[in-house]
Write a structure and sequence with these properties.
elongated; 10 helices; mainly alpha
Length: 199
């Protein structure tokens, strides 16, 4: 009886962590893609050219993301995956909020660069955590669910961001996507797996 209860508890915990990681990584992709739908509004306010905004939204994000992906993945392997992911989520959420508060194109560009740094620490620790929690029979299914965060994030960022921007302005769209990242990161920090083995 105790073993059956323990198995149910472990199964419920694995599902909980998977759902939490799915939400966090969906927000990561939403924060990443919302910029593209807000370009017309940002352009009108700052009088920026399409090429400059394309530089901020594209290379401005991608370069920092690429440069920090491997170092943060290595840090997660050597230290705490939970800590790296939680702190990364805090960073990209704060940077997304900073995009909404930007008063110049320089501030906006710096904020987007920081979003890239934060999001570089998102997926690798999440995949590693799931590898510990799920055995070989269930791991591919868990990874498949986690990978769906890419598409959920695109829908949330582009459709949700556009809807919010139409109602309350482009700055509100950044704030709305940034805010949920903080409680989710804290929840992961408090309850996240610390090396639990698959069962």
């Amino acid at each position: 009886m105790e073993q059956a209860t323990e198995r149910r508890d472990k199964s419920a915990y694995r599902i909980y962590i998977l759902a939490l990681l799915l939400l966090i990584n969906s927000l990561s992709h939403a924060d990443r893609h919302v910029f593209s739908v807000l370009i017309p509004s940002i352009k009108d306010e700052f009088g920026a050219t399409d090429s400059l905004l394309g530089l901020i939204g594209g290379p401005g994000f991608i370069v920092s993301y690429v440069l920090f992906s491997i170092p943060l993945a290595r840090l997660a392997d050597r230290k705490s995956r939970r800590a790296v992911l939680a702190l990364s989520a805090m960073l990209w959420s704060a940077a997304t909020a900073a995009c909404g508060a930007a008063t110049s194109l320089f501030q906006l560009g710096l904020s987007r660069l920081t979003v890239g740094i934060g999001e570089a620490g998102g997926m690798p620790p999440a995949q590693s955590m799931l590898s510990d929690l799920y055995d070989e029979r269930k791991r591919s299914g868990a990874m498949g669910i986690l990978s769906s965060s890419t598409y959920l994030g695109v829908v949330l960022g582009m459709m949700g961001g556009a809807t919010i921007a139409a109602a309350w302005g482009w700055r509100a769209a950044f704030f709305a996507l940034a805010i949920p990242g903080f409680p989710l990161a804290i929840l992961l920090w408090i309850t996240g797996a610390r090396g639990a083995k698959a069962a």
